[in-house]
């Protein structure tokens, strides 16, 4: 009996479906992104697991996540596919690749940076420049080599890329008028420790006043790691939202749904960095970098640094 060697080798399609499944967090979401049936995705990944004789995914009702081996194979597959795409782009698809800028942006900044990016695309319309925006929550969850530019907030990752300091974000403390009316007048930062707070985690938060700085201990009653969700909770009167970007809160502060508490006390600004691969050469890339650095501000309440 002659065996079919192709049955004992993984295919490019299998690795592509595996990568999609890891990134999307579920087989169903991966099948939708790949425009195929969930059964096909599941079958192809199962074939991979049989070839490797170990599971690549931990499956549950809430979705999937990579096993230790799956995480290692995911990194390897990303690199291999990147090398393949690079090879094709240098031959058959150079013109298309050179006109597309792949950008990774923190989810918290996606709404802020979308407008200047759209303006840049209009200015470059004659050059057919297209910008692909990919949102991420944790920079450790993305593969830097897959992007031409990466926007990151506050802390620079340990990657070999050129960093540009393009702006800094100002933060404030906000609550709804109803919440403020139901509580005594808040005039001192230490009062916050005794009130229901909305924040991402338990921590000590530095507040800088006109003549002194103070650190308060934050034990949030409601823990939320999304700007939009924190703002919604504050509007509903569920507590005081700490560290809300002024640009995000400004529309609701103008229409009276939120009020800025302790405006003379400031949470330290967070720098916004733009990272670029040193060897990446795309015609419009340098223009985009200069555009973002010279735009002034992305928003009136986003403070630009020199």
Automatic annotation (TrEMBL):
Keyword DNA-binding: yes
InterPro entries (alphabetical): LysR-type_TF_proteobact-type (IPR058163), LysR_HTH_N (IPR000847), LysR_subst-bd (IPR005119), WH-like_DNA-bd_sf (IPR036388), WH_DNA-bd_sf (IPR036390)
Keywords, in A-Z order: DNA-binding, Transcription, Transcription regulation
UniProt xrefs under SUPFAM superfamilies: Periplasmic binding protein-like II, Winged helix' DNA-binding domain
Gene3D superfamilies on file: 3.40.190.290, Winged helix-like DNA-binding domain superfamily/Winged helix DNA-binding domain
Family stated for the protein in its record: Belongs to the LysR transcriptional regulatory family.
Protein name, per record: LysR substrate binding domain protein
Organism in which the protein naturally occurs: Parasutterella excrementihominis YIT 11859
Lineage: Bacteria, Pseudomonadati, Pseudomonadota, Betaproteobacteria, Burkholderiales
């Amino acid at each position: 009996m002659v065996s079919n060697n192709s049955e004992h080798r993984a295919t490019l399609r299998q690795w592509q479906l595996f990568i999609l499944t890891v990134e999307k967090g579920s087989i169903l979401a991966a099948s939708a992104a790949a425009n195929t049936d969930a059964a096909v995705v599941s079958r192809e990944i199962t074939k991979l697991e049989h070839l490797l004789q170990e599971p690549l995914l931990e499956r549950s009702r809430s979705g999937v996540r990579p096993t230790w081996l799956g995480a290692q194979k995911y990194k390897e597959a990303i690199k291999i596919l990147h090398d393949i795409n690079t090879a094709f782009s240098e031959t058959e698809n150079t013109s298309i690749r050179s006109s597309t800028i792949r950008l990774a942006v923190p989810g918290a900044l996606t709404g802020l940076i979308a407008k200047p990016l759209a303006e840049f695309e209009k200015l470059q319309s004659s050059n057919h420049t297209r910008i692909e925006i990919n949102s991420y929550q944790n920079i450790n969850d993305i593969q830097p080599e897959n992007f031409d530019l990466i926007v990151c907030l506050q802390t620079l990752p340990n990657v070999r890329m050129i960093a540009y300091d393009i702006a800094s974000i100002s933060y404030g403390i906000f609550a709804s008028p109803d919440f403020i009316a139901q509580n005594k007048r808040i005039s001192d930062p230490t009062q916050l420790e005794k009130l229901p707070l909305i924040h991402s985690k338990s921590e000590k938060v530095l507040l800088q006043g006109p003549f002194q700085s103070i650190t308060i201990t934050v034990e949030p009653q409601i823990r939320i790691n999304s700007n939009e969700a924190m703002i919604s909770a504050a509007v509903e009167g569920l507590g005081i939202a700490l560290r809300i970007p002024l640009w995000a809160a400004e529309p609701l502060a103008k229409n009276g749904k939120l009020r800025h508490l302790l405006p003379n006390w400031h949470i330290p600004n967070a720098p916004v960095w733009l990272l670029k691969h040193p060897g990446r050469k795309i015609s419009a890339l340098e223009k985009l970098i200069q555009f973002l650095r010279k735009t002034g501000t992305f928003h009136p309440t986003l403070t630009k640094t020199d």
